[in-house]
Amino acid sequence: MVKIIKSSSQKVGYQVQLDFVITGHSRDEELINSLIPYLNCGILVKTKRGEVYFTTRKFSDITGIIIPFLKQYPMIGVKSEDYLDFCKVADLMAEKQHLTEEGLNLIRNIKAGMNSNRWDK
Fold it and tell me: Could you tell me the pTM of the whole model?
């Protein structure tokens, strides 16, 4: 997930945040929870609707653990394209491009084409 949040502390007026999430049903809680020690990052979140999430938004975990892991064990299926866009945004952030108006607009364009918007075109 790529989030763009209004922020008065940023020169461009917005903060970009990456949030890596794997969702499962409550019956999969043990499996989802096992990702935390396996990857050595993330937390488990439970919802009232019976969902469980593995999530991390710590940039160093995303770039140092999650992305290298998924390069070694690539994703397949429809989510793989969204993941590649997620990686593009992570690269732009690593280069500090999200702190410029031009970079922020590029990230907005990438985000606009992700998930269900990919198929609306």
Answer: 0.87
Q: Which residues of 61-70 are buried (b: 16+ CB within 10 A; e: fewer)?
A: bbbebbbeeb
What is 2-118's CATH number, 3.40.220.10, 3.40.640.10, 3.40.190.10, 3.10.28.10? 3.10.28.10
Could you read off the pLDDT tens digit of each residue along the chain, which spans 121 residues? 999 999 888 888 899 999 999 999 999 999 999 999 999 999 999 999 989 999 999 999 999 999 999 999 998 888 899 999 999 999 999 999 999 999 999 999 999 988 766 555 4
- Determine the 3-state secondary structure of 36 from DSSP: helix
